[in-house]
Amino acid sequence: MLRSLLIYLSKAAWAQNLITSWGFAWRTASRFIAGTKLEDAIRVVGELNAKGINATLDHLGEHTNTPEEAQQAAEDIFATLYALGADPAARGNVSIKLTQIGLGLDEALCAETLERIVARASRNKTFVRIDMEDTPYTDKTINLYYAMREKGYDNVGLVVQSYLYRTEADVRRLLQNGTTIRLVKGAYREPADKAFPKKADVDANFDLLTKILIDAALALKSTISADGRIPPIPAIASHDEKRIAFAKSYAEKVGLPKSGLEFQMLYGIRRDLQEQLKKEGYPVRVYVPFGTHWYPYFMRRLAERPANIWFFVTNFFKG
Predict the structure, then answer these.
(1) What is the mean pLDDT of residues 136-152?
(2) How many angstroms separate the CA atoms of 250 and 247, rounded?
(3) Exactly one of 58, 131, 170, 203 is catalytic; which is it?
(4) Per-residue DSSP letters for 137-166?
(5) Got the DSSP string for 266-293?
(6) pLDDT greater than 90 at residue 21
(7) Is-catalytic flag, 131?
(8) List 182, 189, 243, 285, catalytic entry
């Protein structure tokens, strides 16, 4: 019930106007967000890289309302790609949401903009991960990913969500062309006819999908690029130690080299686990969000973990 409420609030304009007016809200959100400016994010990439950890940058934003807003979002993404390209030593790539660049407005405009972004990333020798949003956009997102691959771009990958019934079939199809996949549990509110309502089922499906991804990585000899920018096929994005332990155990059982399996975590969450995995020899990538449109992302982080809500509440009483 609480998770559903927080996800509802993440999309409610009245709640956004109210909560973002509270000074302590940003103080709490900044635990999970690198900053409001690109230079903040680039600084964090440098700090992570110094620890041997890779990064993916997300200039926050989604559901733009006009073509002009979508174009501005694209310009912000170009600036991020330029900043990464300007430093050959930067071990990072970018993640984007398609509603940020106009998917909810005009699919043709979104496709054109996405190709420009992927082409720019290709010139900068880096990678674009297309985030998965809620189910009204699932098919459109997958179709646009395929459109980029059909145009010859291989520096683009996708996110899938283990809480959806359809995901196993999607993953098996995506792996036919060696898609690099970030596996997440899912952070949106979905109806019971589309998503597993019970956490145990979501976890079981996550482990099944992990096995499928690891098997594909082994068969295709997938590995992370030497510069850390291009991930291997499986990117296991979780802070759940049981899911991580399962992935490690299964990869070791089938003989997948550690370089063939990447673990991804969110900025500001479980830094201890990030560094532990790195010490064990696994590639680790931190998802680094930044920008002024932080509210929806922040509310979804509150919905995911009760500990995050407690952190928010204690800041409320501190003023």
Answers:
(1) 97
(2) 5
(3) 131
(4) GHHHHHHHHHHHHHTT--SEEEEEETTBTT
(5) ETTS-HHHHHHHHHTT--EEEEEEESS-
(6) no
(7) yes
(8) 182
**58 noted as active-site residue:** no
Place of tokens 């991580």: 244
> Which secondary-structure segment (H or E) carries 201?
helix 199-220
How many secondary structure helices (H) and strands (E) does the chain include? 13, 8
CB 129 within 8 A of CB 145: no
Q: Give the Cα separation of 193 and 1 in Å (integer).
A: 18
The residue-averaged pLDDT of 276-287 equals: 97
- Listed by start position, the domains of the chain span 34-293
| pLDDT at residue number 8 | 62
54-86 per-position pLDDT tens digit? 999 999 988 899 999 999 999 999 999 999 999
Q: Which CATH architecture has domain 34-293?
A: Alpha-Beta Barrel (3.20)
pLDDT digits (tens, 9 = 90+) for 194-210: 999 999 999 999 999 99
Q: Tell me how far apart the 2 most distant CA atoms of the chain are, in Å.
A: 55
Is residue 149 within 8 A of residue 177, CB to CB? The reply is yes
Q: Determine the Cα–Cα distance for residues 156 and 52; give it in Å rounded to an integer.
A: 23
Q: What are phi and psi of 265, to 5 degrees?
A: -140, 165
Residue the block writes with tokens 């109210």? 18
The length of the chain in residues reads 319
